[in-house]
Amino acid sequence: MKPRVHSVRNGFLLFEMVLALGVFAMAATGFVVALNRMSDAAALAQSELRITRILDSALDETLSLPALEEGETNITVGETGIELDTTIELIEDLENEDGQLLQEMYRIEIRAKWFANGQWQDRIVETWRYGRMYQP
Fold it and tell me: What is the CA radius of gyration of the chain?
């Protein structure tokens, strides 16, 4: 019977396994970090889209009023915690390109405020409208 001779190759096999596990761990960590960042970006995009839709809806509602009156209103949108401040003000001394005075033009501004990521966030949408647009 011959005595067993250990090959030097056995030591390299263990080292190769540890090295492969280390490379796999780094790749898996990078993948998890990338997925986390994609998730954060998707959540931010969804939040921005929700705020944009709420502002667009509030602006459409205000623009469709039959008669505009100067003033400010404040409402809270459902249970979202989003506050909408609507300001309607008459624009004085507005002229067109020909120098004619434009009367009964109103500036409508809607500001959305909400608390997210540990601080207050806000977005503003603004437009102008002729006061008698929907009157006969």
Answer: 32
Is the C-alpha dihedral spanning 26, 27, 28, 32 positive or negative? positive
Within the chain, where are the H helices? 9-63
pLDDT, tens only, 87-130: 999 998 888 888 888 888 999 999 999 998 889 999 999 999 98
Sign of CA dihedral 135, 73, 55, 89: positive
Q: Measuring CA to CA, how many Å separate 61 from each of 50, 69, 91, 103?
A: 17, 14, 20, 22
Beta bridge partners of 107: 89, 128
Instruction: Please tell me the pTM assigned to this model.
Output: 0.71
Q: Where are the domains of the chain?
A: 9-130
